[in-house]
Amino acid sequence: MTPLFFTLLIAAISIAAGLLGSLVGVGGGIIVVPALTLLMGVDIRVAIAASIVSVIATSSGAASGYVRQRLTNLRLAMLLEIATAAGALCGAFLAALISGHWLYLLFGAVLVYTAWSMSRPQPQAARSLPPDAWADRLQLHSSYFDKALNQEIAYRVSRTPWGLAVSYVAGVLSGMLGIGGGVLKVPVMNLAMGIPIKVCTATSNFMIGVTAATGAAVYFMRGDVQPFVTAPVAVGVLLGAKLGSRLLGHLHSHWIRNGFVVVLVISAIQMLLKGFR
Amino acid sequence: MNSNMSASFRVELIISELLRWGVFISLLLLAIGTAFGFIQPGEYGRAGGTVEDFHRLLAHPNLTLLTLPGFLQAAAQLRGEALIAPGLLLLIATPVLRVAVSVVAFYLEKDWAYVAITSAVLFLVLLSFALGKVG
Question: What residue spans define the domains of chain A?
Fold first, then answer.
């Protein structure tokens, strides 16, 4: 393997990861880290640092579209972001303290969870949302314009403390493993907090960028962000994600989803095996 | 909340343009920097490099450019990594910039609770830069 071959190969892998991720609605990080460590033999901390930078690129790249559609609930994002950013800070430090084996095991567990959450039937939100004094006082209730329905949809926010708790956990995992953590946050925001799915996606995307920046800053200042590995990964994942958002709607997502779950399960087994070794 | 949306929405549109250009410029720096790495001697290896170059790069990453003197030296030698490092920093800074602008937006709306909340987020992000240097 020569440096040029390595660069082209990880760029190709990253494009594929960004493309697949955007087609099935997850970030590229969940594929980039296993691919870099298992296939290319990159140190897991270097892979995580490269992935967290690519997460920022995807988030900021997608954000401008969400801003124009006014889907992001900025108040909710900022409130939950206190928990997420604090989590990311803790996670980025934990990643340096614990052994690489634990990172493999934890990553394997997150892959298993992601595969499971993607293959189960989508649960319906219970429509009895308890009143939430936090959401009232902090004016989290809002509305958005739904293009498909062509009308303004008002929504109320519930169970804010749950949101804060899950956001903290998502932040820790993001800082530790170099993933966005949307797969944890979006279901809770949608099902437990009662927020429309489009608003969840946009708000979570905004939070992911800030969270990833918090984690990435620690990795960067510590010197774990290796330019040789990170540059092709960040460029590749964003190109792939942009390509994916163009293709979305032209492809049968059912088959892509099933194929993606298979890839996740195989990666999970490999990561767990490597963790136990 | 909707009544004073227009002022903050204009701010949001500015943010969206900042994000677009920030990401575009930083990724351009990363791509050009990587190409430079293969052109300049003593970096990734000219014309694709050798197996030894590859093992050297993965085993002993060049971290000197994360310090200011190291970066200035790399920049003076026109090394590719002297383009990649500011590209990475710009990419990490784009979401931080968005939070900073949001503090201003909430201030303009005289929404003091959210000025405080957003400032706390900004503090945490900036703290991570400071703590990363220590840890």
Answer: 3-276
